[in-house]
Amino acid sequence: MTPAARVQAAIEILDEVIASARDDGPPADTIVTRYFKTRRYAGSKDRRAVRDLVFRAIRAVAERPVSGRAAMLALAESDATLLNLFGEARGPEALGDNEAVAERGTVPSWLGAELSPLVGIEEWPALLERAPLDLRVNVARVSRDALLPQFEGAEPTRLSPWGIRLPSDSRVDDHPAFAEGLFEVQDEGSQLIALACTPLGGNKVLDLCAGAGGKALALAAAAPDAEILATDSNRSRLSKLGPRAERAGALIAVRLVNPPHELDELADVRGQADVVLVDAPCSGSGTWRRNPEGRWRLTPERLDRVVALQSRLLDMAAELVRPGGRIVYAVCSLLSREGAGQIQDFLSRRSSWIVEETPIAAGRLDHVGKLLTPGHDGTDGFFVARLVRPC
Asked: 209, 282, 332, 391: which one is catalytic?
């Protein structure tokens, strides 16, 4: 492919990404992979170059653009070489008068006021930097020190005692230690959420929004004798946990639940859990460096919906935890309404609940919880808080 043809390919992919963001379709990575499956003539260098263009354009534009061409023109404003490719053979059409050009930016304008006050504008560039690849060592089977030498360029994570950090372009899915269940790919911040649960042997732990089970697996590795139940309403995501647990040698019970009947379906564990982890669905604003098109997916209406869901899940968790047990609430978000604001609202409804210090050596105090950010902690963005049910 010529350089101009690569730009045209990137524009076509961006058009699909924009439509997918609008319609809640597949992520950009999936769209890029699918695009090249039907274009076998593109070599590996072409694929890498086009992918790089796509994600550079996504990172450059905060608001969902009107077209892939508008996004690419925004990127080209600061790259004359790129701009000169418009009008070349097999490339994008030549520039016309009054072309639509997307506005460059980091945070969508409507979201700026929603960010936690701790996330100042000086931290915004870090929200879109390429993230490293973090691994969580399965400490039930192997020590981090034993696994570290098996990876080129590896270093121990600074905050999680279970973590190994690799360069962002590392490939580990075909590593022998992965097939042996000795590690999982998991951001250091996500590992810290599991640490915040402080699971103990014999504890009954309920992972209420388990998804594909990353945190349930971390909890099982940290406390192999704990009784862990992972639930979710998404059958497709939850179905991935079984094979992952088998590979890791983890004993985790799995249960699919159906909103709004979760409490009825969990009647046998109601009021019995020592720990309920509520890793709630959220805006995903803490993961923009991995999924920058997430900014294009989020709307005020979608944010309102997830905030309402988080509130319902917290109230549900309050019924499932035993007296003296705790809720650990977490969201991969940097927005106050989803983090500190959500906990303030919960305490206004249940004033007898006790706030407990979050036992992780990271983050900054945000009301009664901790906020982890890419700029301050080098992790994905997370809010986490611990609440104890009165006896």
From this structure: 332
